[in-house]
Write a structure and sequence with these properties.
48% of the residues lie in helices and 20% in strands. It is α+β, with helices and mostly antiparallel strands. It has four domains: 10-54 and 310-342, no CATH class; 66-195, Beta-Lactamase, CATH 3.30.450.20; 209-221 and 241-309, Beta-Lactamase, CATH 3.30.450; 385-549, Alpha-Beta Plaits, CATH 3.30.70.270. A six-stranded antiparallel β-sheet has the order 3-2-1-6-5-4, sandwiched between helices. Strands 9-8-7-12-11-10 form a six-stranded antiparallel β-sheet, with helices on both faces. β10 and β11 (284-289) form a beta hairpin.
Length: 550
């Protein structure tokens, strides 16, 4: 006997238990979070500084690259670099360059021509008649290395920091190669103002407890927030390496490991990595790559300087996470205890409706679902199962066949119907009694069920001693095969029947018909043809089958 409310009681117990556990864990985590809050906030803020600085410079460079990509693929630029001394082509190309300069952070750009090694300079509003080379490029001069390095590089562009010898200022250079069909035609070059970029990136580091650096893949320091007021660093050639500036082996090893992760320019944004330091003024370091370059930004900080009211953020996140975890756990418990079994019950009912003879799910349970499953099973049996033989009854056949025939008609599949009758069954009852007659019906029903075992086939007690076998998607050969097997199965029962004129044991006669389904057909038409075939079997001696086309 089932106990009322088992599912609901179990659900309540699990929900309350999960809530108590979540509350205890939440209280414990919140208590210990206060102890580590300063370190956690320090790490978060240092990573934000690194990420924002890296993205700021990446955005500058990405804009320049986007502009230069358009220029490098411009037909006017390619045509002029291919025919430098054509005045018309030069004029059109410099119109493109003039428009580019308007979009740049810089105020001019340089163009090197591969065929003549002439160098040009483009500015906003430049007049075509005044366009003349400003220099002749020489691979032996260090200041012209930008052109030859880019022309000979396998990369589309090169990012570097060098002195603008024309303007006498240090700049962040973007040198972009122009090609046609894989042949280098020239290089477009522009420079971002070094002091402006340095100030923009590192203006947030106004105290001595934080320091920002930008390094290349070799560990050379290109920018240093501690040197923002040093004119030598901002305007002249000034180089220093990490190993020259720092002695903390943890820091050096972490940076070198980060740099070794790239085999060229950084392509995608990556979350900054954090490392604790043990020597010197700084106690915390974060590293973030700068996209489109082989540079990385390093933020050094003293954790105590980063304390802020945002230290409550970890606690809030913890509380929210635990609440979410509780909700998820409760949902999972609800699903497993209630909804999953109900879904299985629903699936089993669908299968049962599709003529699957498996038992309804949940019948073995002793809770509400088990009671429901068994009730449904009982109702189904009473409505659709013949109580004597355990076969489907006519009601089930009539309710199911409309859907089956509709499905078969869509593919013009064949349907075979067999009508069966126990030979001289009335004489059997008169001779052996109704109890023996019932046992005979049950034995024949078992023989039919054991012979017709395919999932979609249906065996029906049509009435009295008559049976019907429905064989979807079965041609005439298959139907005749089943008919012969059914005859043999019943003969094999060897049930004595001395009044049977066809044999000394119980036999059956079968009528078989097969036809392709279409929307005009119905089951009654198939039953009528099968019954006509059955009549022929009876008239011609019984204990046989007769096939007729539909």
């Amino acid at each position: 006997m089932f106990s009322k409310g088992k599912i609901s009681a179990r659900f309540r117990r699990v929900s309350i238990s999960l809530f108590i556990v979540a509350f205890i864990i939440m209280a414990t985590v919140m208590f210990f979070s206060f102890e580590n809050v300063t370190k956690q906030v320090s790490a978060e803020y240092a990573e934000r500084y690194a990420a924002s600085s890296a993205e700021a410079l990446s955005a500058h460079i990405e804009k320049e690259i986007g502009i230069f990509t358009i220029a490098a693929n411009s037909g006017d630029v390619i045509e002029w670099l291919s025919d430098e001394f054509d005045t018309s082509k030069k004029e059109h190309a410099f119109e493109v360059f003039s428009n580019i300069v308007k979009q740049l952070y810089s105020y001019n750009l340089y163009i090197g021509v591969a065929s003549s090694l002439n160098e040009y300079r483009a500015e906003t509003g430049i007049i075509a008649d005044t366009i003349e080379p400003v220099a002749h490029l020489d691979k032996n001069r260090p200041e012209d290395a930008w052109f030859f390095d880019t022309i000979n590089s396998e990369k589309e562009y090169i990012i570097s920091v060098n002195i603008d010898h024309f303007m006498q200022r240090k700049r962040v250079w973007l040198d972009y190669k122009v090609e046609s069909n894989g042949v280098p035609l020239g290089v477009i070059c522009t420079g971002l103002e070094f002091s402006h970029i340095t100030g923009e990136l590192f203006s947030q580091f106004e105290n001595n407890n934080m320091r920002g650096l930008i390094i290349d893949k070799s560990g050379t320091i290109y920018m240093d927030s501690s040197l923002m007021d040093n004119n030598e660093f901002l305007f002249n050639e000034y180089t220093s390496t990490l190993r020259e500036e720092f002695s903390d082996s943890t820091m050096i090893n972490a940076i070198e490991t980060h740099l070794n992760e790239s085999d060229g320019y950084w392509k995608n944004f990556e979350q900054p990595s954090a490392t604790g330091l043990s020597l010197g003024q700084y106690r915390f370091m974060t590293i973030a790559p700068i996209r489109h370059t082989d540079w990385s930004i390093i933020i050094l900080s003293d954790s105590t300087t980063l304390f802020d009211t945002t230290y409550f953020i970890p606690i809030m996140i913890t509380v929210l996470s635990l609440l979410i975890a509780f909700a998820v756990s409760s949902s999972i418990a609800s699903y497993k205890i209630i909804f999953k079994p109900l879904r299985k019950l629903d699936d089993s009912l669908i299968k049962l409706n599709e003529h699957n003879t498996e038992a309804i799910f949940g019948g073995e349970r002793d809770d509400e679902l088990g009671h429901l499953s068994n009730t449904i099973q009982d109702l189904f049996n009473k409505a659709n199962i013949d109580p004597l033989t355990g076969l489907y009854n006519r009601r089930f056949m009539d309710s199911s066949m409309e859907r089956i025939m509709d499905l078969l008609s869509r593919s013009e599949a064949e349907l075979s119907v067999l009508m069966l009758d126990i030979d001289f069954f009335k004489r059997f009852n008169d001779t052996y009694g109704h109890e023996a007659g019932d046992k005979c019906l049950q034995a024949v029903a078992r023989a039919l069920s054991e012979t017709v075992t395919r999932v979609n086939d249906i065996v029906v007690r049509y009435g009295g001693e008559e049976f019907t076998v429905i064989l979807p998607s079965t041609d005439n050969d298959g139907a005749c095969y089943f008919a012969e097997k059914l005859l043999e199965s019943v003969r094999g029962l060897n049930i004595p029947h001395e009044k049977n004129e066809a044999a000394q044991y119980v036999t059956i006669s079968i009528g078989v018909t097969t036809g392709k389904i279409n929307f005009k057909h119905n089951l009654e038409m198939y039953l009528k043809r099968a019954d006509e075939a059955l009549y022929v079997s009876k008239e011609s001696g019984r204990n046989k089958y007769t096939y007729v086309d539909f």
